[in-house]
Sequence to fold (272 residues):
Amino acid sequence: MDRRRKLSLAHLSLIAIPPPELIRIAARAGFDLVDLRLSPATPTDTIYADDERLALCRQLAPLLRDMDLKVWDVEIIRLKDATNPSDHVPLMEAAALLGASRIKLVCDSGDPARAADLLGRLCERAAPFGLTLDLEYMVFSGVRSLSAARALITAANQPNLRILVDALHWMRAGDDTSSLKIAKEQLGYVQLCDGPLLAPVNREALIQEARTNRLAPGDGEFPLDALLDAMPPNCVASLEVPLPSRRDPLAHAQRLYSTARALADRHQRVTS
Fold:
């Protein structure tokens, strides 16, 4: 039985690449899994009509089988005060059609009670599809820290709800490993990248860093070994490092895989 940590290639790492080619690149680079952005996270992302998205997923299913690759995460639900949970059922249907395990969620609401109610209703709609929702906190979103994320999912009180820990947002929120260890039962998986310890100075710069200026594991100063140690054992690690200018997409994916595999295997040897 293979006990190595499974690695997934996040779509943001190659955001300009359409899903079929992303799947081929992820498989060729060695990844076990792939994350697909099938609902926009930013104004520049592709917007799919519901029927268009389902048609795409039907095309992707045989390709995934041929590439021996699985979809881990589908993006994204942006939770706002005006969100109607039923509007996101088509995305859940698409994720289930692909055999995905999770849907990523970001909360843009500043009203914790309203957000908890909406989050609970989203989880109830996701449950029949066998999907877990992962709440990603960010210092520039409505949920800015691990403690805020814990409070929100505790209030929502749903069994298919976890916290997604992104290495960059974890660092920029000023969270530490002890807080992660306390929250371990509420954690889902981890997104890996690297970067400098010194954070950008304003909100716009933080957003720019998150979307375009991440580093591969080992190229920065983040305590990634300590981060993995604080996460649930062998949880999936998704690599989210946008493609640098003039870098070949396949070469970029291969380097992300090799650096993350070295990190994960080293951590496994130390902790086993």
Observations:
- The first helix runs from residue 19 to 29.
- The chain has a mean pLDDT of 95.
- The longest strand covers residues 70-79.
- Strands lie at 7-9, 33-37, 70-79, 102-107, 132-136, 161-166, 187-192, 237-239.
